[in-house]
Amino acid sequence: MSTRLGYLLPTREKIMAGEPQTGPLLDLAARAERLGYDAIWIGDSLFARPRHAPLPLMTAIAARLKRVDVGTAVLLPALHNPVVLAHQVATLDQVAEGRVILGVGIAADVPNIRAEFAAAGVPFEKRVGRMMEGLRLMRALWTGKRVDWDGRWKVEGAVLGPTPHRPGGPPLWIGGSLPASIERAGRYFDGWMPITPGAAEWGRMWREIKDIARANGRNADALVGSMYLNIVLDDDVNRANETLDRFLESYYGQPAAVLRKRQMSYAGPLAGVADWLNEYVRAGCSDLVLRFTGEHERNLETIAGIREKIV
User: Fold this and answer.
1) pLDDT of residue 86
2) Which end of the chain is more exposed for a tag (fewer CB within 10 A), N or C?
3) Number of compact structural domains in the chain
4) Is residue 235 part of a domain?
5) Where do runs of H (alpha helix) occur along the chain?
6) Given this model, what pLDDT does residue 1 score?
């Protein structure tokens, strides 16, 4: 099976630039599909990193494009009521005819994200349990059968309609690379999509996830391993690294040196990027989620032009 290439739409960057119009974003998604990319990805945030709401934009993309998958990288389920979210995602998956992937995460522990949770009325310290229970409830609702639920949410005799196009609902991929995230990925999720670590460590963690899956009676070979990666292409390595640093600091409001330890990034000439990506592919990664730091049209075409080198 060939490596799947995904493209992260610059929803955050467009808001930062004062360009909230969705037409250019839809055009970028269409360009990616024409160039042979396999998936379009969108992030999620309320106030910490202001951007377009992912599900409405994904619905627009799914209605316009007929081949690519549409996914979240990543959705924060704890910020959403799972009953409402289950309904929204089911409708989106009907529009997409089964091409939805839900990448999910628990969010980093930084002040502006804690403030975001507070604004949404969600206890930050309870976000993991809220996410896990909410996803179980969503999966129950996606069966289309009667659901009675007595937990954080009270559901009595509910039957969701429509159910997703894909039986059982979209696959759920989990982010994160801490030990608890690795355990959850192996026990409960359909795929793994971290932003850390390097390729060798990624491979070690991926083997651990599959071992956990087998130990819990799951089909480890059915799991999907992916990686979220930043890319800056420039023949001038110093300039490429300066561009990456500026991008990370403006995006997250934290020092680039700190962020580079948490996010795997390539900054350099085109000649080296395929080898760098192939380190992850050889480690077992089948889906690459690529985020560019600017010049999206050019970068989309450039990476598409070397796709045969990404094995």
Assistant:
1) 98
2) N
3) 1
4) no
5) 11-16, 23-34, 54-64, 82-96, 111-119, 127-142, 179-188, 199-215, 237-252, 256-262, 270-282, 296-305
6) 63
Q: Which single residue is written with the structure tokens 């060939």? A: 2
| 3-state DSSP assignment of residue 232 | strand
Residues of the chain below pLDDT 50: none
Residue 46, CA distances (Å) to 80, 115, 195 in order = 11, 10, 20
Q: What is the DSSP pairing of strand 147-150 with strand 39-42?
A: unpaired
Q: Using CA atoms, how far apart are residues 306 and 296, in angstroms rounded to an integer? A: 16
d(CA 77, CA 104): 7
**Residue 271: strand, helix, or coil:** helix
Asked, for residue 56, whether it belongs to a domain, the answer is: yes
Cα angle 103-105-111, degrees, rounded to a multiple of 5 = 140
Beta bridge partners of 161: none
Our measurement of the distance from residue 276's CA atom to the centroid of its chain's CA atoms, rounded to an integer in Å, reads: 20
Q: Which residues contact 233 (CB under 8 A, 6 or more apart)?
A: 240, 268, 269, 270, 273, 299, 302
Let me know: does 164 contact 89? Beta carbons within 8 Å. yes
- Rounded to the nearest integer, the mean pLDDT of the chain is 97
Strands 39-42 and 4-8: parallel
Sign of torsion, CA 276 281 283 288? Answer: positive
Instruction: State how far the Cα of 24 lies from the Cα of 182, in Å rounded to an integer.
Output: 37
The verdict on residue 158 lying in a domain is: yes
Q: Evaluate whether residue 107 is within a structural domain.
A: yes
